[in-house]
Amino acid sequence: MAKLNVNGAVRDYEAEQDAPLLWVLREQLGLTGTKYGCGVAECGACTVLVNGVPTRSCVRSVSAFKVTDKIVTIEGLSPDGSHPVQKAWAALDVPQCGFCQSGMIMAAVALLNEKPKPSDADIDAAMTNICRCGTYNRVRSAIKVVADGGDASRAGIGIEHADGRTT
Ligand code: FES
Ligand code: FES
What we know:
By secondary structure, the chain is of the alpha+beta class. It folds into 2 domains: 2-76, Ubiquitin-like (UB roll), CATH 3.10.20; 84-154, [2Fe-2S]-binding domain (DNA polymerase, domain 1), CATH 1.10.150.120. It is built from 5 helices and 5 strands. Strands 2-1-5-3-4 form a 5-stranded mixed sheet, sandwiched between helices. The site of one FE2/S2 (inorganic) cluster has 12 residues, from loops.
């Protein structure tokens, strides 16, 4: 049986060697946080980290990965949504429909790991994911919140909450 190293554990799978990594993650390992959008490496909804590098899992054959390759999906960031990027996303209400957001978050995590204080140009270069809901401005703001230490109140965005408060 073939093996993958996903979210810190070695997992068995059975699939054709040309099966996309995305389908093994979703259908065999039950990690459905990683989404299928376009299937042609354009949208980024399927982004996972492989050895820290953001990787579009819809176009990568599972056989290309060795058990020594460390794959991280959105489920592997934290058990409870407490990763700093996840917390900034929640604080700024970044997601709309949410479909693209796990891929967005994984791309942002990779960026911030490599460049803890990214410039706008760095963000533009790294965040090539597509969002049909148009969350791009809040994605940028959330990345800056993390870069500034996690204080969402300095993001310059007025967030209207369900209870009527704007913070
Ligand atoms: S589903 Fe992989 S890039 Fe769109
Ligand atoms: S939040 Fe809906 S597609 Fe991005």
